[in-house]
Amino acid sequence: MPKTSILVPAITIICITLGAITGSYLSVLFQSEVSNLDAISPSSKYAKSEHLPKWSEDDEYSSEQTSDDDSEVAYDQGSEVAISEEDDQGSEVATAEEDGLPVDNITINEDKQDGLVGLVQSVDTIANVSHDSRLHLVKKFFPEILKKFSYPFLKLYKEPCFRKQHDTKETNKTFCLPYFYMVSPPKSATTDLWFNMHRHPFLVKAKGGESKEPHWWTRSDKSKNKAYAKYLGRQSSLVKKAKKSPAMKQQLISGDGSCSTIWDLLQIRKRTKSDTPPFIWGDVIHAVTPDVKIITILRNPVDRTISDYFAFGNSVKNQKSPQHFHENLTRVIEGINKCLQENTLLGCVSKNYGYPRPQLSVYYPQVREWVRVFTREQMFILRTEDWIRRSKNSDILPNIYEFLGVDSIGEELLPPMRKSHQRLIKSKKASKKAKVIGEILPESRALLEQFFEPYNQQLADLLQDDGYLWK
């Protein structure tokens, strides 16, 4: 018998076997793995992988010029909650088409107001993917991030700082990544909290007066070197201060306050070619800096949705009246519920349906995933209402400083709060928009309350705090 007649069947069998093995391996990454979520227990913290940065005894400094940020803050109209015009940072103000996300063309059935209640799913695909599997996916789809930030951290810094060991041009420079992230949706008083926190001398603002929201993880082009240089450059003011006062290296920290980090998963969905994101930005951040701290401030979802519409929704054409708002709200909720028939909760709330944007106020799936990645002890979660209504002797800021590991300083020793932070004022811009649109209809607020109720309950159960029911 000719040798070729023997080899061909044999090779065919081998190829089929290898294909089956490969397919089985890849399917494991997305299949359900029994994993009970205990959001409160610190014992659920994942072990660090071998690729993560290790401490180095070496230390160097950068001589880059810096200046502190001094941006202004505005306030939401018709509400007790302080907000910032920067909370959504440019591209978030864009329409759905500009965002690059498809807007669901859901036909509104005006005769059907029932059935618009949020459809709560008991199981999310992403919730059943193990940490190791998600880390493997991060390596697969964002290898350039791990490569750029894979250097050992310098032991003398509290901030995760490093030197590029194989780049002769920048070997003697020190670069830093944020020590903490403020992970919250826009219009939640993030800017008010951010600027009050940064009255502390150990919290260093970004270089050159840049915004608290670089939106680097969600929107930068990670294939370009200049994107990494720009992001690392934000922390150069911290390096400069550490050079002037070496004893401060174990005290100085900086942060990233981008609102989009918690909800904008578009790049992940595009890279993975999946409507259901198999991981979140928290997984990517954890792969690089596993010990960072996360601060999350959450506002009553009904108020946040309405505030978000007044702030950004007017950029949409033909927005004329409260009735128009109600019609669009109905369309969006129908779109979310239709999505839930075939997709996960996280997948559906990370999509864009146009304005208004109630999906950004469905906090449960977002918070659940961040807690899964970083554990409860690495997260400081508070309500916007508690922050705004704090008393003069409130312990919120001292608790945040303790959480961040910086020495608490008495209020009398801190710089005075800006006048705009001391009283709740109405921005002229928001007031003008509200006059054009008019007051939101009672049935719109009722529809929002009905839609959010089951998700608020899930969040309250997760955090073991009924305050997140907002009743």
Note down, in words, how this protein is organized:
- This protein has helices at 3-30, 96-99, 131-141, 143-148, 190-197, 216-219, 225-233, 236-244, 266-272, 281-288, 301-312, 322-340, 345-349, 363-374, 384-388, 396-404, 419-422, 428-437, 442-463, and strands at 55-56, 153-154, 161-162, 175-176, 180-182, 255-256, 293-298, 379-383.
- It is globular and about 60 Å long.
- With 471 residues, the chain is mostly helical.
- The longest helix is centred in the first third of the chain and has 28 residues, at 3-30.
- 41% of the residues lie in helices and 5% in strands.
- Helix 12 crosses helix 19.
In short:
With 471 residues, the chain is mainly alpha-helical. It is built from 19 helices and eight strands.
Radius of gyration, taken over Cα atoms and rounded to an integer in Å: 24 Å
Q: By helix and strand content, what is the structural category?
A: mainly alpha
- What is the H/E string? HEHHHEEEEHHHHEHHEHHHHEHHHHH
Q: Name the beta content range.
A: 5-15%
**Overall spatial form:** globular
Search tags:
471 residues; mainly alpha; four-stranded parallel sheet; two-stranded parallel sheet; 5% strand; globular; disordered N terminus
